Amino acid sequence: MHRQQLVTFGRKCGFIPELISRSPPKYRATDYEKRYAFLQAKGVSTLSDSELRALRKHYKTRFDSHEITEDELRDLDRGVQLYFQLKLDDRVRFSCRRAERRGSPRLNYLVCTEQFVDKNAHVREGTRAANMVPRYFYYYIDYYCVHRFRDKEFMLFCGENIKTEERNGLLMIDGGAGSLILEFVDIENIEDLCALVPGQKGEKFIVDERNILEKRLFKKLRG
After folding, report:
1. Start-to-end C-alpha separation, the chain
2. pTM score
3. Three-state helix/strand/coil letters over 137-192
4. Average pLDDT in the chain
5. Which residue ranges make up each domain of the chain?
């Protein structure tokens, strides 16, 4: 205690310089808004075969079939710059599964994303025009990364897509969905950080931000 008082007194009198608190280094790719930033760089990682397949699927979905070639997909760079945190709007930090500490009670890598899907995807190609509509998807984020493709850097996360079902306007994780699907998603699709709430019979419910909950309940009331 006496030592701490001496240190405090020394700083006030200028004998001991104040330590400058530095913010952790951030990274933001050129074409992304200032609201997005990666933290905790973890070096370069090499994608596994399953991750590479998921990344190919991501780019194939992102670009129209006539805009991307099979050669480009086959020759994708396996190297990615790895990160363990995403900072959004300087207000919230999203973590990832790889950064989780053993015994940690927090789950801050369950996210809701909004992505566009084709309602006519089940119809044979060329029979009907694409009808793109927004839809919410939920993921456990494994890690964040920057991948270079076509001389551009893409800020992505790699995560497991969670199968869900609605029950009386509430969103529940489908426990019988089998293996989770590994996917790459652009961070611009992230809507919010979600909470996981256990039910009375072992169910697991996802709690969204208020605006998404209201949309879901309003849709349910409209029938």
Report:
1. 66
2. 0.79
3. EEEEEEEEEEEEECCEEEEEEEEEECCEEEECCEEEECCCCCCCEEEEEEHHHEEE
4. 81
5. 24-98+109-222
